[in-house]
């Protein structure tokens, strides 16, 4: 009888590096379910220190979540480079609470983590997360959102040095749905992109002092308490003093005087892109806008300015400022057209929106002479 020679299958001739590249695109649950224990080689590849994982467990049902935490996570916790957890739907089980309290998982054990996303965290747990982040020296991206059911009128999230401590941290998004404070910061951060919902203007000013590398900022700002102290800090060469490199600014502004907003913007002389959503009739003062773009904001070339007002307008407002249609015409003069900016007015049953933007520039229409 002739001997039979066992020829390895084609897939087994691939190098380990090929499997690393392929497996990198799959979830750890699928990989361990399909390949763990299949043969010695696949088991070795799955447990190799070069094998990294990118897991999003936010969509797991309760049984799958328990299975993952008990059977998969212990095998890969120090090899995860991207991790997302916390259910998107607050009506589902509280995944973050189970993760941090029932299983008492320490986030500092994710030693090689570069991206961390936590959905629907409770405010009381944010301090625990911040403390753990000081040990994640490879962290580049972080996104946190607070459970909306955990928000009260006086809810406040205090952000300190520990959240921004990682030397490689560049991108931060915080959707707290409550006031965020930065009063305890005293160390310089390397963050370049930041998104905040929401904080007060003086707290945003404080934050900028410790984020000199910040390039893109998105924030909702509301309120200004100690005006005199803030004006003393902001007036002067704020950009030069703190070496700001802020290039792109996107702000939703509520309950802040137009003059205070302009005072803040005056200090950001390096801005190239500006997006603003405002809701006060004072912001329709075309001459004040023109003055700041001629002086402090002369480098801005990308503009998206929206002023939204509710109807009806009170008599005092109409006496102080022109009708919205007349103001729109003033934004469509030579000064604005030369910068590639055009204005339009959208009127609805209960509000109007005056929009000045690069995206509205007509192709044929010529600019009016001032």
Automatic annotation (TrEMBL):
InterPro entries: LRR_dom_sf. SUPFAM superfamilies: RNI-like. It comes from the Eukaryota. This is Uncharacterized protein.
């Amino acid at each position: 009888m002739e001997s039979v020679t066992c020829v390895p299958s084609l897939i087994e001739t691939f190098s380990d590096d090929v499997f690393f590249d392929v497996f990198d695109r799959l979830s750890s649950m699928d990989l361990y379910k399909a390949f763990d224990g299949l043969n010695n080689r696949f088991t070795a590849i799955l447990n190799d220190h070069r094998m990294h994982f990118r897991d999003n467990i936010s969509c797991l049902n309760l049984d799958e979540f328990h299975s993952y935490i008990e059977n998969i996570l212990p095998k890969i916790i120090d090899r995860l480079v991207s991790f997302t957890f916390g259910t998107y739907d607050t009506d589902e089980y509280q995944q973050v609470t189970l993760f941090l309290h029932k299983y008492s998982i320490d986030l500092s054990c994710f030693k090689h983590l570069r991206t961390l996303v936590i959905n629907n965290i409770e405010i009381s747990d944010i301090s625990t997360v911040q403390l753990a982040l000081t040990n994640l020296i490879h962290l580049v991206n972080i996104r946190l959102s607070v459970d909306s059911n955990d928000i009260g009128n006086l809810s406040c999230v205090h952000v300190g040095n520990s959240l921004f401590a990682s030397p490689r941290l560049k991108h931060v998004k915080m959707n707290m749905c409550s006031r965020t404070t930065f009063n305890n910061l005293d160390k310089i951060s390397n963050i370049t992109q930041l998104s905040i919902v929401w904080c007060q203007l003086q707290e945003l000013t404080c934050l900028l002092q410790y984020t000199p590398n910040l390039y893109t900022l998105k924030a909702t700002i509301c309120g200004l308490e100690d005006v005199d102290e803030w004006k003393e800090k902001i007036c002067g060469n704020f950009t030069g003093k703190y070496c700001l490199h802020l290039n792109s600014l996107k702000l939703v502004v509520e309950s802040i005087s137009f003059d205070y907003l302009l005072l803040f913007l005056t200090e950001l002389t390096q801005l190239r892109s500006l997006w603003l959503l405002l809701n006060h009739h004072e912001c329709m003062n075309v001459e004040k806008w023109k003055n700041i773009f001629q002086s402090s904001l002369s480098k801005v070339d990308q503009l998206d300015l929206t002023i939204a007002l509710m109807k009806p307008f009170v008599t005092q407002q109409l006496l102080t400022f022109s009708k919205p249609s007349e103001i729109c015409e003033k934004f469509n003069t030579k000064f604005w057209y030369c910068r590639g900016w055009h204005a339009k007015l959208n009127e609805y049953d209960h509000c109007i929106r005056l929009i000045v933007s690069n995206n509205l520039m007509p192709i044929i229409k010529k600019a009016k002479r001032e």
